Amino acid sequence: KNEPVRVCVTGAAGQLAYSLLLNLARGVVFGEDTPVILQLLDINPGMESLNGVRMELEDSALPLLAGVVCTSDPEVAFTGAQAAIFLGAMPRRPGMERSDLLKANAKIFREQGEAMNRVASPDIKCVVVGNPANTNALILSKYAPRVPKENITALTRLDANRARNQIALRAGVSVDRTLDVLIWGNHSATQYPDVSHATIVCAETGARRPVSEVITDTEWLHGEFIETVQQRGAAILAARKLSSAMSAAKAVADHMRDWWMGSEREGELVSMAVPSDGSYGIAEGLIFSFPVRCPGGGKYEIVQGLEISDFSRGKLQKTEAELISERDEALACVAA
Ligand code: NAX
């Protein structure tokens, strides 16, 4: 067995964590030879419930679970952490203005960034899930200057998985035969689910055909498909009266596993919201969902040189504009 990995999970008493924690302790994310120590953070009112989660984890008799820490102190939760999953955030309540939401979350991510900066492993890999995820990640990064910028990412893998599912359903193939379906931009309704570079794999020969050859209804691809993916979170919320948790937990595990150990298929394009380096003309520093490749060993690279049609360019600009305005508003909040 390897040395245990210390994994901090914030918002650990919540419903997303309840679906996620077992996967973290089962080897699917950090490897089957790698024990984990779970360092679970929530706020004081969540401590009793979090203790119940700890008991359940222990009762699961997991050989890879090398320890569980439950705390409401960010410094304890981030001590020595090599990976962190940020689920805890202030939810939007009825009547709450967007600026109030940004302000409350900017405060949380500033405090956690500062604590992480002081006590975490300097090579910690972070994925922010709590909304507004991209902008929360940006604030986190600002207050954790010791952590390399590229180590702070946000989750758009759930959106990408949703998009793959829609394509698979429409093409009548299993989801594993859809490849390189992308999400660009913000994890919000302006995200751009893009199939221009996606392919469908032939079950017999393994040959790949562009999605646009298999699904020839461009109107659907440019319209209903995009809207369905953009609105999927709202559809689940309306049906369950709770936001997506099972699928979100699966997506977090996909994101972190690909980053830590490499993607399932060598060379495949996956979507991660990462700090923009100016690729595709996107403003530098924004936490923007790009196509990336994950070769393993805790590395990823933004894929260069994909052709961007005029249709795609318009969508990219729209989601970029939203992220710029969120960034400016959140930065103004933390400065105030
Ligand atoms: P829950 O409300 O069930 O859980 C959130 C937990 O965070 C609670 O236990 C709460 O006490 C805790 N918390 C609040 N403030 C905290 C703080 N300052 N420090 C530590 N913990 C804190 O929400 P859940 O359904 O688990 O969702 C978690 C987050 O994921 C939400 O922000 C949600 O909007 C977001 N989502 C993001 C998705 C994505 O793709 N990026 C998809 C799923 C999900 O909707």
TrEMBL record:
Q: Does the keyword tRNA processing apply?
A: no
Q: What class of enzyme is it?
A: oxidoreductase
Active site: which residues? H187
What are the residue boundaries of the Lactate/malate dehydrogenase C-terminal domain, all occurrences included?
156-332
User: What SUPFAM superfamilies has UniProt attached to this entry?
Assistant: LDH C-terminal domain-like, NAD(P)-binding Rossmann-fold domains
Keywords, in A-Z order: NAD, Oxidoreductase, Tricarboxylic acid cycle
Q: Could you tell me the superkingdom of the organism this chain comes from?
A: Eukaryota
Give me the residues that bind NAD(+), please: D42, N105, V129, G130, N131
Reaction equation(s) it catalyzes: (S)-malate + NAD(+) = oxaloacetate + NADH + H(+)
Q: Name one GO molecular function term.
A: L-malate dehydrogenase (NAD+) activity
Where in the numbering of this chain does the Lactate/malate dehydrogenase N-terminal domain appear? 5-152
- A Pfam family cross-referenced in the UniProt record is Ldh_1_N
- Can you tell me which residues bind substrate? R92, R98, N131, R162
InterPro entries in the record: L-lactate/malate_DH, Lactate/malate_DH_C, Lactate/malate_DH_N, Lactate_DH/Glyco_Ohase_4_C, Malate_DH_AS, Malate_DH_NAD-dep_euk, Malate_DH_type2, NAD(P)-bd_dom_sf
**EC number annotated for this UniProt entry:** 1.1.1.37
The record ties this protein, via NCBIfam families, to: MalateDH-SF1, PRK05442.1
As for family, the record states: Belongs to the LDH/MDH superfamily. MDH type 2 family.
- What name has this protein been given in UniProt? Malate dehydrogenase
